[in-house]
Amino acid sequence: MGFTYPETNTEILSHVNFSLSSDDRIVLVGANGSGKSTFLKLIMKRLKPTSGDIEYDPRYTIGYYTQHFFDSLPNDKTPVQYLMENFKWLTNEEETRKELSRYNLDAKSHKLLIEKCSGGQKSRIALAYIGLLEPEFLLLDEPTNHLDMESIDALIDMINNFKGGVLVVTHDGYLIDNIHSRLYYCHDKTVDEFKTGFNGYKRYLLQKLNSFEEVVELKKNKSGKNKGRKNRNKTTNTTEPKSTTKVDTRTEEEKQEEINKSLDDFFGKKKKKKKRKKKV
User: Fold this and answer.
1) Cα–Cα dist 262/213, whole Å
2) Which residues contact 25 (CB under 8 A, 6 or more apart)?
3) Which of 9, 31, 174, 235 has its Cβ near the most Cβ atoms within 10 Å?
C-alpha cells in the first residue's frame, strides 16, 4: 500500500505491508512527518491509498481517537448529556457519571458545558465515548496529549484490559513502557516492526544522535579552517587562527547519562510519584 498527497505530489508511504489482528497490541513510533497519522487515516478510510488496498471486515467497530477528536464534541452539551444521547442504554445520570469518572473526569465537569471544558477534560470525555462504543479495535493517535498522570494510568488500564486489537501512535515513554505491546516504526516511507522493542529503538536513536553530533563537529571544524584560509588571504599575518572548536571534557559515562536524559525528555518519560502514608 502507498499514498501520495495529490495536491503536492508528495509521496508519504510506499510498499507498506501491515496487518492488525484482534489480539495485537502495537505501538507505532517515528519522527514527526514520517506518516504515522496519515497511516491511521488510511486505515480508517479517511484517505484513499494511491496504490494497493486496505481491507477489513466492515462488521467490526473501530474506536478511533485523534489529537483533534474533541473538536467535534458538541459545545452546547454537558458531558453527561453527550453520553446519554449517544448511548441509549445509559438510562440515568448516576450511571453516566460513573463512566466519566472511570476516565478521571472531575465531578464538577460532568454537568459543565463542553465548550467551557479544558483540553484535558475534553480528551477524557472523548476517551469515555470511545470506551462506551465497545469496539473490536482501538486506533489511538497521541492519546496522552493534555492528560495528567492519573488519566494516563486510566488509559493504560483501558488498553491492557481491552479485549481486541490496539494500534497506538505515541512518543510517550511512560505509556509505551506500561502497555504490553510490539513496537513498529514509521521510516523511509514504510512501516516495519522493531524487533528489539522500545529499548532497542532508543539505542537506535542514540546511534543516530551520535552520528549527527559527529557530522556537526566536522562541519564546525571545516568552517573554522575555511575562515582561517580567508583571513590568511586578506592579511600578511602568518599567525594561525585560534580554533573555535570546544574540547569535550565529559567522560563517556557523563555523555551517556546526558543522552539518556535527552531521550527520556523526548519520549516524555515520567516517574510516578509514590504517595506518602500519613502518620497516625
Assistant:
1) 14
2) 159, 165, 166, 179, 180, 181, 182
3) 174
